[in-house]
User: Which sequence fits this backbone?
């Protein structure tokens, strides 16, 4: 029996967070490993961490192209890989940024602005017949806005790819019992 799916969750895609040494050529070696082995990268984002010696690469992989175990074994063979973690979407905070330029003539401009506002997005550039909108949030939320903007006509679209961190612990710290009366 398959695990229950959460809205917006895609269990074919898995998020790997790869901590690597922050050195020239590391990203090229990681991406060429995927290309050589025929693994499909659905999304990739990379940036330095709070420790300048390391970078964090967030890779969303298509597990239909290879087993997750095989992918992690191949990544660990790379010299500059320090640590690999898989993040379950149910236990992670995931975010992405989308910029989209949408046709918005005089008759449709108000509708596009209202729609973007409903998603707490922003209008970041205005032209005579187009608007460029920005939205950051959970990937499924970006998918929803993109789908709703399509009928207006998306002329350009760019998404950053997913970034993710584990959710924080939500259990209350151990509390001392209070004694009543004496």
Assistant:
């Amino acid at each position: 029996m398959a695990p229950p799916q959460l809205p917006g969750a895609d269990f074919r895609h898995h998020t790997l967070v790869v901590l690597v040494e922050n050195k020239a050529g590391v990203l090229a070696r990681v991406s060429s490993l995927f290309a050589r082995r025929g693994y499909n990268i659905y999304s990739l984002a990379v940036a330095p961490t709070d420790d300048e010696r390391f970078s964090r690469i967030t890779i969303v992989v298509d597990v239909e192209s290879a087993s997750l175990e095989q992918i992690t074994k191949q990544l660990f063979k790379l010299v500059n890989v320090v640590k690999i973690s898989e993040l379950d979407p149910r236990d992670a905070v995931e975010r992405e940024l989308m910029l989209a330029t949408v046709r918005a003539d005089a008759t449709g401009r108000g509708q596009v602005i209202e729609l973007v506002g409903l998603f707490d997005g922003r209008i970041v550039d205005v032209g005579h017949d187009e608007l460029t909108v920005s939205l950051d949030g959970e990937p499924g939320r970006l998918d929803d806005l993109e789908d709703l903007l399509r009928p207006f006509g998306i002329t350009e679209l760019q998404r950053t790819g997913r970034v993710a961190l584990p959710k924080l612990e939500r259990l209350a710290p151990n509390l001392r019992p209070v004694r009543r009366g004496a």
Remarks:
- The radius of gyration is 21 Å.
- Residues 1-9 have pLDDT under 50 and may be disordered.
- The domain at 93-166 is CATH 3.30.70.1150 (Alpha-Beta Plaits).
- The chain has two domains: 13-87, 93-166.
